[in-house]
Amino acid sequence: MNTNLALLLLLAPFLGFLFNIFFGLRVGKTLSGIIGTMAVAVSFATTFYFFGAIAAKPEGIHISLFEWIQISNFKVDFGFQLDQLSVLWLLFVTGIGSLIHLYSISYMHDDENMHKYFAYLNLFVFFMITLVIGSNLLVMFIGWEGVGLCSYLLIGFWHKNQEFNDAAKKAFIMNRIGDLGLLIGIFILGMLFSTLDFATLKTAISGATDLNMYWLSVAAFALFIGACGKSAQIPLYTWLPDAMAGPTPVSALIHAATMVTAGIFMITRLNFLFDLTPGVQNIIAIVGAVTALVAATIGLVQNDIKKVLAYSTVSQLGLMFLALGLGAYEVAVFHVITHAFFKACLFLGSGSVIHALHGEQDMRNMGGLKKAMPITFATMLIASLAISGVPLFSGFFSKDEILLVAFHHNIPLWIVASVASIMTAFYMFRLLFLTFFQEFRGTAEQKHHLHESSSLITIPLIVLAFLATVGGLISLPGNSWLNEYLTPILPKLATAEHHLGTTEYILMAIAVVGGLVGIGIAYAKYIKQNAVPSEDAAITGFSKVLYNKYYVDEFYDAIFVRPINILSRFFRDTVETGLSALVFGFGKLTNEISYQGKKVQNGSIGLYLFAFVLGLCAMVSYLFLAQ
Amino acid sequence: MNNILNHIGIENYIFLSVILFCIGVFGVLYRRNAIIVFMSIEIMLNAVNLLFVAFSTYHQDAQGQVFVFFSMAVAAAEVAVGLAILVSIFRNLGSITIDNLKNLKG
Amino acid sequence: MNVSLILIILLVGAFATFLAGDKLASKVALFFSLAAAGASIVLLNHYNLGENISFINQWITQPNISFALKADGLSMAMLLLTTVLTPIIIFSSFGNQYKNSKSFYALILFMAFAMAGTFLASDGLLYYIFWELSLIPIYFIALVWGNGDAEERKKAVVKFFIYTLAGSLFMLVAFVYLYQKAGSFLIEDLYKLNLSAAEQLWVFLAFFLAYAIKIPLIPFHTWQANVYQKAPTVGTMLLSGIMLKMGLYSVIRWQLPLAPLAAKEYMYIFIGLGIAGVIYGSIVALKQKDLKKLLAYSSLAHVGLIAAGSYTLTLDGLRGAVLQMIAHGFVVVGLFYTAEIIFRRYETRVLAEMGGIRARTPKFTSLFLILVVASVALPSTFNFVGEFTVLYSLSQINIWFAILGGTTIILGAYYMLKMFQQAMLGETNTRIFTDVTSNEGITLILIIAVLFFFGMYPKPIIDLITPSLEEILIQINRIN
Predict the structure, then answer these.
(1) Which end of chain A is more exposed for a tag (fewer CB within 10 A), N or C?
(2) How far is residue C235's CA from residue C141's CA, in Å, rounded to a whole number?
């Protein structure tokens, strides 16, 4: 029963993929979209069954289907592990996934390749489910790489534009850099413990007394690099902003809510490993905090509505990594969930705006959309309040907990994270004010067509806005359902204390005031002063550095991409030719010897005879001398 | 044992044979006329034949003499063929100087 | 029933194809190659039931040469690769018209015969004969039916022929030397020799030269790209899909067990050479303008990794190498076939002259993309199983080997996706590109099906090859 339902959970989106690939074009756009959505909805429904099943069976459900890969000292099964962590992820992957599928039916309706879009999206959900429910690192890796492939396909969905294709390629390759790290981590774990199974690893690591700490740290660090790639942390974050080339619902699903959280999922899954390597944990915390700050500063000055959201995503993911690094996995997971709600809402809202403006993404050409698009505005406002940490919205609870944990561990990290949060509040409201307030700055043609999007678009927005409002309830300070739920995965939660003292209240107040200050600055600048960001050419000073994203892309280009290309040209033109000439050199040498030898044979009998006699004399004298 | 070798030592035959052979060699190397080269080869052959016969007597073994007959027969055949070739060369080139015969050149 | 049946079918097929005449040649060839594939599957079944399917007969008494065809799991796996790929390759050529096609198809079957013989032979000299025999048909296939300028083609093909032949001669010398010692060419007798370390080094190097040129490892690869480019696609498929694997197979079967001390002593150098090939091949592939040349260099990178895996002398390394050999055989045939499909329509192999094909051809694009991702070893494809196992074995030797070898994951994705982007994506091409015909589709789908099936369920192949690899490892570790 469990096996069959797990297969249903996994294969429903895959069947949707197959259907859309083979028959999608024939059945028409709407039906193709409906079937795609249904496929994910089936998985969503099945998840509820497992939610119930696990409530009755806290140790989780383990299913092994068949033996997959065989290594000399262990075997890897193709199996599933459904426990609290995977079910939690499944809930929002399939739940938000269904909503975004629904949204896409309307959003992508004008695209000639809509059936392919749904096929890829279904395939993505299939791989994401594989990632989440894999019972060992390698099955997880199938999903891990699979979602990377789907991300490639969807970023480059409009494949006639080579810039989009470049972005897709970049995303895939940068992910693969991380994947190499992940593989190295897998190799070391396999070498140390002769298993890749999560459950067995857990017992092996928790029970062992004489662990090789050096290799364990290397493994943890390598795995963290993998997480960096997938979750867009420094130094592998530059693909995520470029990934905005894909359709907006894709950005919402893959590049905000689900795929980019895979790194956090993996680290949480292996918390027993990371807990033993404090050095690596410190690195994770620092990388997370720095990423949060750097991405937030870049987000301050971006003018592309999706780019702002992309950098905001990187920044929020940085906060989650900060929490992971401090050992507060449950807080990171909490923020993953609330972030999924409000960021998906924001992306879908921006999609609604872009849809209404026929592809316009530059906020300098927007403004005043509040009246034309009231529902989009309201939902985005709620989501912005949530991400800014305004009390009672979901983001307030999760972000506050991260700051709290940071404060208890390390004051400098707390300061960095707080600054990043203030900036978040600022740029989110900058976005909101520039888009929805003041006068419309676009063309008259666009203005004429302004309209609220269809209900297929607004319903997911409303649902997500609702979740972004109440999502915080799952983990209220002092009485956290989430922490209790995750206790089997994170054993130390059982002993953790939940009480709120004066310090906590003061910190909360500081965070709230910080958020409000950020909003206030944005209000003062963009509403009171009615400022509009200047044209590209007019940006100067430090904002120019920020606007150009600290020139990191150019930097990577100069130190990695171009040298490799130069090397490639050098190898192709010089080394290959040289080696080839060397081999031909042997042939030429033989030819030359033969050519010279030919000259001796000039046909003169006298010479031949002379040589003959000379040879004879030589032989005779040798025979004499030899005696 | 009573034979000619008791009167004239074997070494004399060897010297004579070597001298003859060398004359033949030098003749082959220095003369350009094909007929003289040919004659020089015959001298070398006969030098060897002489040695065969001398050692045949020395060892009291008839095999050497048998071999000489064989070699004389071959030499005769060779002369017949060789002269025929020379005649045909003369007809074609109008001379029998061996320097003109460079068609073997690779 | 024994393995000589396969060789007989292929040889008879070659003659029958030649006699059948130009019109029927391709169909007769397909029939016989399918018969060989069927027969080898039946034989595999017999083998799995534990029957003896080897064929060993005295052939020449002085010197002592046997006609010994021994089938163990490793040989059977390679035999299956040959007999299954051959009909696919022949079928893939159905869209093309060849002049004098009876000779063409007869040569293909003859080559399959020689390669199958190489994989089966367990007598040194017999093996050598098959090894050299396989060179003759590919020489003519590339020379007569190849493309491009005739003079340049001749230059490339003659270079290839002489180069590989020269390398093999060293192997012959090694065999003669071993025969002097053992008095027999049979592999079992050669295993029993107790050679000194110095002798082993020479034997090892002599074999190495032959195999390094055939595989090819850098810096012995200079023949490869040109021949791949100039040969007709069928020839390229035979070369890259099967013939390269002869070299890799021989490393495992002959070189390592015959000179284990040298193999252990200089292991790091040869692993390093393989990995250098991975990186070098990948980087050179980045800037290739010709699709077939790019695939040739990608092949160089992949076989470098396989060779590195073999030289680790661990069960994982050998197993991963064999798995990857089979996987690479299929994927590379598929990729060259896509190059051919594009060539049939656009008459070009230059990437810059392609582009914008995707918009017109959903089926072809999907099939091509699947092959691309299989070639970059996406998990759930067969290539991942092989690459993972090989990299794992490298990490056991030294983690840096795994990291450096693992760059193939990154660089491979880089050049393959770049190639895909240049060839397929972008503004819709103005020239018409008809989607795959049913013949082309079937060929590609067959290959893809194999890749995915064994990617998810490689157990049958693993179970087939593991016992014989363990036996080889026992031989490798016999002197300690």
Answers:
(1) C
(2) 6
